Amino acid sequence: MTEIMNATDDSAANGTTSVASASGREPWHGTRSGHNYHGCRCDDCLEWQRSWYREYTQRPEVRKRKNARRRAKRRELKNGTPPVVSTSDQEPWHGTRSGYSYRRCHCDRCSEWQRNRDREYLKRRKERENQNTGATARLRALKADPARYRAMRAKANETARELRAARTPDQIAQEKARLQEYRQRPEVRAKRREYLRRPEVREITRERNRRHWAQKKAEAEAGSMPAVNANGSVAAKPR
Asked: How remote is the C-alpha of 103 from its chain's centroid?
């Protein structure tokens, strides 16, 4: 006990309040009394303080208050609080995202971080645009070669036919149901009617119908099938 009193006197003389006893005989080591009341900072007392703090920060009411403070801080930043220009460079968050975005510091280091971030963003955006431009140029070059473009389209169509052939009856029924439901939507039907009323579309439709019925007539004249009128009825055989 004399050693503890001497240590307390020395700490008071040095302006400190911690007492790190080396004897380990006192029953209050590793307890709340040892850390808070006696001010001991031995290993047992520090371990008790760390374990208590971990348990304290996980309490629901503590987490609720902490989240409320965070939300209040975000609202304050969202409502347009004036930026903070710190005159001290001792804080470790200067020149970081936390300093510029969260603490809203606009000192030289934080402003330089923001400028570097914008430069990196513009660089990445330009690289993406160049990549897209390259893909567009390759597609244009492919379309400029009709034979190569037709071969690619034929291969893609063959792959699509193989995928369609591998579908199960349930998958086919589901796809038909989804397509039928989509076509019955009012906005889809209105868009289709508007599309079919276009002059160029009406001309394309008429030309397609003329080719279709000309082919049917040619096949009927060849004797492969009975003649069919434009309205779809079977034509009478000539006597």
From this structure: 25
**Which residue type is seen at 14?**
N
Main-chain phi, psi angles of 153, to 5 degrees: -65, -40
Say if residue 36's pLDDT is above 80: yes
Please state the pTM of the whole predicted model: 0.27
Q: Which of 78, 67, 134 is nearest to 102 (CA)?
A: 78
Start-to-end CA distance of the chain, whole Å, equals 136
User: What gap in Å lies between CA 199 and CA 84, rounded to an integer?
Assistant: 63
Integer angstrom CA distances of residue 145 from 17, 136, 148, 150, 202: 86, 15, 6, 9, 31
- What is the full DSSP assignment across 1-36? -HHHHHHHHHHHHHT------SS--STTTTSHIIII
| Cα 70 from Cα 56, distance rounded (Å) | 18
Amino acid in the structure at residue 158: E
pLDDT in tens, 70-125: 777 777 666 655 545 555 566 788 888 888 877 778 888 888 888 888 888 888 87
DSSP 134-200: HHHHHHHHHHHSHHHHHHHHHHHHHHHHHHHHT--HHHHHHHHHHHHHHHTSHHHHHHHHHHHTSHH
Q: Which comes out higher in pLDDT, residue 163 or 103?
A: 163
Q: What is the DSSP letter of 41?
A: -
Question: How many residues are listed for the chain in this entry?
Answer: 239
Highest mean pLDDT: which of 8-22, 126-140, 143-157, 193-207? 193-207
For helices 108-144 and 146-165, what crossing angle results, to 10°? Answer: 100
